[in-house]
Design brief:
By secondary structure, the protein is α+β, with helices and mostly antiparallel strands. The protein is about 35% helix and about 25% strand. The chain is globular, with a radius of gyration of 27 Å.
């Protein structure tokens, strides 16, 4: 007569040995990989803080570009060398992100006080089909930023050429009514007086924090 209890215990023993061996093998493999594999390359950016400020470990050179500007002439990024720049992307038909960003731009500028003239704000549209130079000029007036903000009309070729520098993403959702939305990167980029990308402010970063960070750079 077969002893069912003995047979059950044998299977339990075999299963326990199998699980124990698997766990031990996993520990051994993990330990070997940990000490043998090379370290991952260091990230470009320092770890961001909860306030949404990411400062580059080393300021990075940027590709120069030239675009039509609200000043009435074509301007290049290099034209701003010698002056710090707060650069951001958007479009005038934006229903939510851009209005808040422009409001924060005005507040940040005001908080810079006597150092406000050391910083120029640059607004690049990613919707050149609708955003002409004239429309950009009119769009900035209600936000009261037109005196210290330059609007640039970005074309697709130029935007693609500089997209890697800013991790820029934009996608137009075209429709027949021409009333389409555009998804786009909403960060603000602080470029130092030598034309190098220095800091990235996440969308919604409080103006006081941006102003404090900028003052630490320009004073």
């Amino acid at each position: 007569m077969i002893d069912k209890r003995k047979n059950s215990n044998s299977w339990k023993t075999i299963l326990a040995v199998f699980i124990g061996s698997a766990l031990l093998s996993g520990v051994i493999i993990f330990t070997m990989l940990y000490f043998i594999l090379p370290e991952a390359p260091q990230a470009i950016y320092l770890q961001g803080n909860p306030e949404g400020i990411r400062e580059l470990s080393t300021p990075r050179d940027l590709v120069d570009f030239t675009l039509p500007a609200t000043t009435g002439e074509d301007l290049s990024l290099s034209d701003f060398h010698g002056q710090s720049v707060m650069l951001f992307f958007g479009y005038t038909y934006c229903p939510d992100i851009c209005p808040l960003t422009l409001t924060h731009i005005r507040q940040t500028h005001d908080l810079l006080g006597e150092y406000a003239d050391d910083v120029i704000f640059v607004y690049i549209t990613v919707d050149p089909e609708r955003d002409t130079v004239e429309r950009l000029q009119q769009y900035m007036i209600p936000f009261r930023i037109e005196d210290y903000t330059v609007g640039l009309v970005g074309d697709d070729i130029t935007l693609q050429q500089i997209s890697a520098d800013y991790s820029l993403y934009y996608q137009r959702h075209d429709d027949e009514s021409n009333n389409y939305a555009v998804d786009h990167t909403a960060s603000i980029y602080f470029i130092n007086e030598w034309g190098q990308l220095d800091t990235i402010f996440s969308y919604g970063t409080h103006p006081e924090l941006m102003a404090e960070h900028i003052l630490n750079k320009v004073r």
